[in-house]
Write a structure and sequence with these properties.
This protein has about 450 residues and is of the alpha/beta class. The protein has a domain at about 90-110 and about 225-420: 3-Layer(aba) Sandwich (Rossmann fold). The protein has 19 helices and 16 strands. It has helices spanning about 15-20, 40-45, 50-60, 70-80, 110-130, 140-150, 170-175, 195-205, 205-210, 225-240, 260-270, 285-290, 315-325, 330-340, 365-375, 380-385, 410-415, 420-430, 440-450; strands at about 1-5, 15, 30, 90-95, 95-100, 135-140, 155-165, 185-190, 215, 250-255, 275-280, 295, 345, 355-360, 395-400, 435-440. The strands form 4 sheets. The chain has a 6-stranded mixed β-sheet with strand order 4-5-15-10-11-14. It has a 5-stranded parallel β-sheet with strand order 9-6-7-8-16, sandwiched between helices. It has a 3-stranded antiparallel β-sheet with strand order 2-1-3. It starts with a strand and ends with a helix. The structure holds pyridoxal-5'-phosphate.
Length: about 450
């Protein structure tokens, strides 16, 4: 299987190269040249597989340049740090409402599903090519923590994560700074997340510097992340009663469109899922898109669900590619207009299988409270957004993207009890090791140069 860029101006690459490259050189995102199809027989053969076995079987159509046994071993290792036997348990709240818990990984958020695997793929690549790799990324919280835990202590890798000092949740900061690993540098930037992003862009634009230090970016657009996320939809779908499988709606708290895109791609591969609900918080560029056809930038207003506080839904470009008839010239045209004017108006936007909801900050504690009263179930502020507008006439599977214990203040204000988790309690006993750095490309480069492997 080869991978092409949504913008059509990058030569096709194999799986390993597309994963190592991340963002395509033409500015586009990688996608399979052709989406493979899973037949009814193949899906039936998946029933009863363990999560890692299912993941390996799924990837067989994608990771065609890594032999099956090696890949299976990489996958097996990627899910050993999850602390639930089902990896992604499906919890029924009522006959028509189920929760897919994606927060049992090492950082208690769904990003572990992709970043544990990506970390092991990087390690494998380093070993194959006898190269070391330096991973650099900026985070507003969950991504950085999950990326760090994906590469923690891995030989041949060093990870540098920039985060805005004083502007990430205290427990997220601890997940990044209390690891004790000597290949991890948590860099506390004196500035905002956007300042850190701007400095990073400048560093990555210097191709020579990138090559010299074997720099790789960690962000939400890596192809392997989207594919790894397809697997938990598949795993949930396989566990539904057969007569209800075709009727399921997945409800997905989303910011970058990464999570919901994975489910939608799985459907395009022949898995008969009825529909998806794109659940946004108050930063609702996607809500406006699906209701008005207009995709337009807006200011980001910090919310109680901070990992969904995004301005541009970067993975949306992959959806766009399919929506525009897999025509890279049209993708380039839309993305250029968007870049120049900050918006794009779609003529007829086919929203047959998508519905949308949005959730204000005021609603989040109310929803946490009512879920607790109705079902005795505690949801985190991101997952709460998904419950804003559940269709009562449909079988809904809500994706729970983070463990409530990561956001104790919001939960306590809603239900009067502060949730805890053993892995977070351990962190509180460890010293914080962070590296204050100015938000300039020069300062960041100097820091990285001194420590890169
Ligand atoms: C990253 C994140 C999201 C948003 O995911 P996208 O892939 O950007 O749509 C939602 N909830 C939590 C807890 C997250 O960490």
């Amino acid at each position: 299987m080869n991978y092409i860029s949504t913008r059509g101006q990058t030569p096709a690459l194999g799986f390993s190269d597309a994963v190592a490259t991340g963002l395509a050189p033409d500015g586009g995102l990688f996608l399979p040249e052709q989406l493979p199809q899973f037949s009814a027989d193949e899906l039936k053969a998946f029933e009863g597989l363990s999560y890692p076995a299912l993941c390996s079987a799924f990837f067989r159509k994608f990771a065609t340049d890594i032999d099956n046994a090696t890949f299976a071993e990489i996958v097996e290792r990627s899910y050993t740090k999850f602390n639930h036997p089902d990896i992604a348990p499906l919890v029924p709240l009522s006959d028509d409402l189920l929760v897919l818990e994606l927060f049992h990984g090492p950082t208690l958020a769904f990003k572990d599903f992709a970043l544990q695997l990506l970390g092991n793929l990087y390690e494998h690549q380093c070993a194959m090519r006898k190269q070391s790799i330096n991973v650099l990324g900026a985070t507003s919280g969950d991504t950085g923590a999950a990326a760090i835990h994906g590469l923690l202590g891995k030989p041949g890798t060093t990870i540098f994560i920039l985060y805005p000092d004083g502007r990430v949740a205290p427990l997220q900061e601890r997940q990044m700074t209390c690891t004790g690993a000597d290949n991890v540098y948590a860099m506390a930037i004196e500035g905002s997340f956007d300042d850190a992003q701007t400095a990073l862009k400048e560093i990555f634009a210097d191709q020579d510097y990138r090559t010299r230090h074997c720099l790789s970016a960690v962000n939400s657009i890596n192809l392997a992340r989207v594919l790894a996320q397809c697997v938990y939809y598949l795993s949930a779908w396989l566990r539904l009663p057969r007569e209800r499988q075709d009727n399921v709606e997945f409800v997905v708290p989303t910011g970058n469109f990464g999570n919901v895109l994975a489910g939608w791609m799985l459907q395009k591969m022949g898995v008969p899922i009825r529909s998806f609900k794109v659940a946004t918080n108050q930063n609702d560029i996607l809500y406006r898109l699906f209701t008005t056809g207009e995709y337009r930038l807006d200011q980001v207003a910090p919310s109680l669900a901070p990992s969904m506080d995004i301005q541009v839904a970067s993975n949306f470009e992959r959806f766009l590619y399919y929506n525009l008839g897999q025509d890279p010239a049209r993708v380039r045209k839309v993305m250029t207009t968007f870049k120049q004017t900050g918006g794009y108006q779609f003529a007829n936007f086919d929203t047959d299988i998508f519905s949308v909801s949005h959730c204000s900050d005021g609603q989040i504690p109310e929803i946490i409270k009512s879920m607790h009263e109705k079902f005795g179930y505690v949801v985190d502020p991101h997952t709460a957004c998904a419950f804003a507008d559940i269709d009562p006439d449909r079988l809904s599977v809500v994706l729970a993207t983070a463990h409530p214990a990561k956001f104790p203040e919001t939960i306590e204000s809603a239900i009067g009890v502060s949730p805890t988790h053993p892995s977070l309690e351990v962190l509180k006993t460890r010293p914080i090791v962070k590296h204050p750095v100015a938000a300039s490309a020069a300062a960041i480069r100097a820091f990285v140069e001194e420590r890169a492997v």
